[in-house]
Amino acid sequence: MTNDIFVYVELNKNNNIRPVSLQLISKAMQLKTKLADSKVIACIISYNQDWESISKIIGNYGADEIIIADDEKLSLYNNSLYPEVFTRLVKKYEPSIVLLGATTEGKEIASYTSTKLETGLTADCTGLDISQDGKLISTRPTFGGQLIADIMCRTLPQMATVQENVFGFEIKNNNAVIIHENIDLSNIENKVELLSSKYKDSSPSDVGTSKILVSMGLGAASEKGYKLVKELSDTLNAALSGSREAYEKGFITKSQQIGQTGKTVAPRLYIAIGISGANQHLTGIKNSGKIIAVNKDKNAPIFQHSDIGIVGDLYEVIPELIRIIQADNKEE
User: Fold this and answer.
1) In the chain, what are the helix, strand and coil shares in percent, each to the nearest 5?
2) Please, what is the average pLDDT of the chain?
3) Domain 212-331: homologous superfamily in CATH
């Protein structure tokens, strides 16, 4: 077993690298500084891609080696073939740490690989570190976000899936070594046949991709508050999101919840309305570009993490914000 860190690189529907993969490579580069004789190895599975361009991007974020499994049968994601191919590569290269994004695809592959290799898997992590004795520390929320658990695996490889946007990007400009692997797929039973596919286009209402989020907390969790927050998000062409309290009161769906037990986001602008700023929520917005907070409590913790803080009654502040934005839009 080596000290290497294996990172699964996922492509989206447009064959672009999913951001979480590059975030994991950047994080893996930090982790390897705490491991002796360690390499960061990126693994990508697909077919007939522009491997030169893709490899250059991956190398820019610091991967030391890039393993490419390229076969016509792998042109589209298949949950019979991809997990088995990935498992075989992990077996061959014997990394001590295996990281994947906590996406639908990443979770499928990770669960299959951990089962095949009879090793542990920590899911939906929000933090990663290396202990003094060189073990992976995987951090994740537990008990509904009330506690944060640091988990260490007793078996190898140590595996974890990581939520999107919990880590940032760091350019390293490595000249990565590219390795093409020919995997024999003839003896893999393919139990799935793709008949057709239809992709949902992203829109401003998608919490994970929107550049602007307007988020409501307990202080705005009323019918009147919801209408104002919704009007502000519509005016800004932004996505509507909220805290766990807003979800529990039924004003947003689970897919709109931000925080340790919801989504981690990285919009250019995050507007928090009636959100106090508990650690569970702050974890989900730490990578936001700018944060604007509106709260009537001047001592609310959210103000310590905001670029702009407005102390006031949201029922007075939000209508004025909407009026100003609408006036500016008319002038344009």
Assistant:
1) 35, 25, 40
2) 92
3) TPP-binding domain (3.40.50.1220)
